[in-house]
Structures are given as C-alpha cells and as structure tokens.
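S.,

As promised, the flavin-adenine dinucleotide run. Input:
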Amino acid sequence: MKLWNEVAFADKASPVLREVDVVVCGGGPAGVAAATVCARQGLDTLLVEKNGYCGGAAVAGLSGTICGLFQAQQDIKNADPKQIVFGFAEEFRARIADKGGLTDPQIYGKTHVVTFDPHIWREAADDILEEAGVSCLYHTTVTEVCKEDGAYTAIRLESTAGSTFVKAKAFIDATGDAALVAKSGLPYTYGSNGAIQNPTMMFRLADVVEEDFYDYFGVDTICPPDLTKRLTEAYESKTYATPRNRIWVFPTSQKSVFLMNCTQLAGQCGEMLNVINPEDRTYAEISGRRAAREYHRFFKDNVKGFENSQLVDMAPEVGVRQTRTIQGETRLTNDHVVQCTKAEDGIVRSSWPIELHAGDVSKLHWLVDDYYEVPFGTLIPQGTDNLIVAGRSLSADHEALASARVTAQCFEYGHAAAIATALMLQGGCTYKDVDVQQIRRRMIDNGSAL
Ligand SMILES: Cc1cc2nc3c(=O)[nH]c(=O)nc-3n(C[C@H](O)[C@H](O)[C@H](O)COP(=O)(O)OP(=O)(O)OC[C@H]3O[C@@H](n4cnc5c(N)ncnc54)[C@H](O)[C@@H]3O)c2cc1C
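Predicted complex:
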C-alpha cells in the first residue's frame, strides 16, 4: 500500500478544459442520481466516469438487483411487497421497468428485491442524464483534487487524450471509493480494523429449466438449506471449490436466464483481500472468474434444471462491496441501524438487513416490519466546505454500512447530495450550513418518502 500515494495536490489548475457549477465523480447509482438532479435544478453539471458506461457495481459488478426499496416483513410469504423508498430510486426503477428490463418483486429472505437487466440499466442512465442536460465524460478518471484558500477549486482528469483540469464550485464524490476524499488527505476508515467485506464475481446462466428451479428453490431467491448442505459436503470432500454455501439465485427478466450471487473471494490463505491495492484486486478478478466457473460446474453436475445451462455472462469487473468509509459530520452507527432510529435530518429510509460478507459465513441481521433513516450528515466529510460524498462510502460503522450501502439508498444519497448542492450554491454557504429540512422538503416534492 505504501507505494500508492493518495495525497497529491496540484499547484495550479492549468490547462482548464471547462468550468462548471458542479462535478460529479463516478457514475454508479449515486452518481447518476446526483448528476441528474443537479442538472434538473439548473446547475451546469459534468459527470466523470472511468468506465464507458454508468452503473458502477450495479452494472460493471453485475450486482443485478435493486435492494432496499421494500420493507422487510415477518410473514413475507403471505405479505404484499411494501415499498418504502421512492424519489429518484423509484423513478429509475420505473424507467428500467418501462423498457422491459425488470422483474416483479421477488422474495429474498424476509424482504423483496427486483432484478434488472444490466444493459437496460446503462441505457436508462444514458437517457436520463441526456434528458436532464448533464455533460458526461466516459473513459475519464479523476486523479487529483486542487484546493485554493481552503476550498476545492478543480479536479485533474486523465484519459487517453492526456491530462486536463475542470474547475467547479462544488464537488460530489460518487466514486464509491471516496477517491476525492482520500486524494484530499481527509480522514476515512477502512472496514473493521482494515478488513473489508469480501468481493464477489457475479455471473449469469442461460438455458435453465425454470420449472425445475422453482420446484427446488420455491419462491425464495436465497437457496434452500438442502443446497447449503450439498455445497458444504462438496467443499469439505474437495470435490468442488465452493467455499460459500449460502448462495442466492435470481430469476431475471429474460426467460431461462438466472443471476448467480455465489462466489465469496478471499486471498490464497483465506485472508481478506484489500481491493484498493491493485495486486489484490487483480487476484480477485482472476480467482473470481475461476470461482464462477467452479460454481457453474457444481450446478451443472448437481442441481436439477441446470444440467444444460450455459455461463453466458460474467461481470466485467469483480464486485466490490466496500472500500473507504469517510469520517463524516455524523456517523451512522450499528445501534442506529439495529434500533431502527428515525433521524430528524433523515434523507432516506432503509429496512435492508445488515448483510455482511465477511469470514466463512455471511451474516444477515433482519430489520423486520420497521426501518431506520440515514442522517444527511453522513454524507459530509469532516473538514470540507464544498465537497460532499454520495453513495456507499458514506460515514457509517462497519456493520451499519453493510445495510446502508445498497442501490435504492445510494440513489437517494445522490438525490440528497444534489439538492444540498443547489441550496449551498444559492445560499453561498457550505454543505454543513445547508438547512436539512429544506433538503427533505425538496426531496418529498420530488416523490421521496421520508
Ligand atoms: C457483488 C455485489 C453484489 C451486490 N448485490 C446487490 C444487490 O443485489 N442489490 C443492491 O441493491 N445492491 C447490491 N450491491 C451493492 C450495490 O451494487 C452498490 O452498493 C452500489 O452500486 C453502490 O453505488 P455507488 O454509486 O455508491 O458506487 P459504485 O456503484 O461503486 O459506483 C462508483 C462509480 O465511480 C466510478 N469511479 C470510481 N473511481 C473513479 C475515478 N477516480 N474517476 C472516475 N470514475 C470513478 C466507478 O467506475 C463506478 O462507476 C452489491 C454489490 C456487490 C459488489
């Protein structure tokens, strides 16, 4: 890690490609929401994304379902889906559905999720950003943040064309990795004493016999106990390299195609990988592809309906759940989540369980028939005036983050960060000084439920 210097300030920003009101760094769910809502409020908005498309972990990582829209319910099998998150999350959900790229709600343990088509997700993002008037730069990486007289003034961009700067009045760090925060030398934490959640290589199988799948799995996308037992036996007898035994399989909007959330990647001796380090990330990519093939081999050999299945899609990049977590003005604590606390400065509800992928067995702690609200202050890094975070790097305890990091909530973090940006620029103040009740009112006007 020592060779990767995270703090680099430019002396001066030159040459300058553009000057805008706000730069949104990263085009995952949070970045797409932030950029769209900024532009809709009349701000000259630039979104910078290092991939050739938006979607982040949802698309490049093929995470595949929108979690966090619905409330967990004790008697889920007899309950109708109870949606508790709306606003931009609902708008984007409806857009994918209108394009035919979404399933109906599916049962996942004690709650519901919807599974989306990743190609349609990225096209929906292209459309919504264009309609709002956002300028996008794909295949462009933010590598540096510039500061003058205590305020952020510009970022450095790198692409195959070379290096340039963009000046802005406000900066939204939606990189998932808190890249701007780290490059500014601001404080952050990293998992539980440096150990983050395991990455996963997601994949999709085609030509699955649907009736056989439903006969065995029933209506729950979490695998039946019998499959857990068989995966354990297969692993212990060294017949298959299938260390994770509690896996999830989601029917998709395409007939006979299933999304597979099976792998759980660790180092060669079982140690946690540090995916900020390119060496560990490379290992995760390669071992992830091998692990996906191995789970497919297990399914073909052992699970009725999967005998003739084909592995038609693997995530372009290994799915990273967690890296840096900022030190925010407010911290989302484990107690806040477990006790379903409602916050006066809440910007989104969440009933998603603490879904912690770490160690040998993933933990699922359910928040049943209730939800908590994520405070706005979790998005504001300590020690900044005009830089805000949107997305999974919000300020949260390790286990709290394992609940708060999912897609529906990330959309709404972007939504809130964008409204805060417009209010900050109008008021000539800092993010800390923005009236949170005004953010909430505007979010409610935009359809959010708070
Ligand atoms: C394996 C896995 C399975 C998951 N399953 C689900 C699920 O089923 N349902 C669910 O709701 N959630 C799931 N999640 C979580 C969810 O996908 C993420 O939490 C969510 O995508 C985070 O959104 P984000 O916008 O905060 O960040 P990200 O999605 O990580 O997006 C960050 C974006 O920033 C870009 N970026 C990063 N650095 C730079 C830079 N320096 N310059 C320019 N661009 C940059 C990245 O390319 C990326 O597009 C899963 C995650 C993983 C890893």
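The CA atoms of residues 34 and 418 lie 5 Å apart. The pocket of flavin-adenine dinucleotide is lined by residues 25-31, 48-51, 56-58, 61, 63-68, 141-142, 174-177, 179, 200, 202, 319-321, 391-392, 405-407, 410 (CB under 6 Å).

- D.
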